[in-house]
Prior knowledge:
40% of the residues lie in helices and 10% in strands. The chain contains eleven helices and seven strands. It has helices at residues 19-22, 28-45, 91-96, 101-131, 151-161, 194-204, 215-229, 244-250, 253-258, 276-293, 315-319, and strands spanning 51-55, 142-145, 166-171, 188-191, 205-210, 238-242, 270-273. The chain has a seven-stranded parallel β-sheet, with helices on both faces.
Amino acid sequence: MPIHDPEPLYPAPLAYHNDDFLNSPDGRLFRILAEYQEPMTRFRRERVQDTVVFFGSARFRALDVASHELELLENTGSAKPAPPSEQPASKEEVARGAASAQQLKLAEAAVEMARYYEDARQLAGMISKWAMTLPGRRHRYVVTSGGGPGIMEAANRGAYEAGGKTIGLNIKLPFEQMPNPYITPDLNFEFHYFFMRKFWFAYLAKALVVFPGGFGTLDEMFELLTLAQTHKLAKKITVLIYGSDYWKSVINLEVLAEKGAIAMKDLELFQFADTPEEAFEKLKTALMQDLQQQTAPDRDHPQGDGIPATPAPDAQSLLGPDIAKTR
């Protein structure tokens, strides 16, 4: 049989443009590295030195305007509301006597959670206003959240209203979810890997503020407490648990010490606070100690010059030779 000439071949895609490879199991290493290096690049560019991280429930929407009804979300960070039977009772349902006992309990709890939203918003604003008065060419103690609704939104909102930068470390989930609108756009992140997101929560944090929440909040709190307990952090991190009534009804950390599961001194790894003012004073005291320990002069970022309005040049532009960019 005659051999026909083969069809012309088109150029193969470059490896870093090959989506089939990048999204395959063999490309996982590069995806993980990207979730390390890309945030690092942005944090450097935006001159973020360290953070104060807020955790808390993502299922409650805010009740900061009288005409809005409280609403539970279907899942943590979901954009979809929970079914009507699982929603807090509305004022009209209460007035008509049409609310179930469960809905009445949820309505009572929703009012409490709305208060925590406003407390987180106020506290984040206080931290941001104070941090913006600190000298230096980098942004200190930038308010950071998981980027979603609820307490996360409240923290980003408070920092935004104070005029500060604020970070959102969102996570890609199987259901529809959106970052809250108060995040600084250049500091809005979305992660595929939970462990890379957790790395960025811990890596820059000088303080953790734990508002009432669920599984995710407990997970993050205990992970950082474990890192502090086992001296795996190369820095001191302040853990502030907000809302002692809520948390002491959910978990009894003193029992862990009484039973010998943790050391008595481990109870010193965290503190409680119940008002934004009390929380701010405790955080400010701890963060001022952190500032005082940084006695060595920062030659690259001298004190007292103020934070520049524009992002920092990247390391290549600042230090490297003039290398042509990749097209």
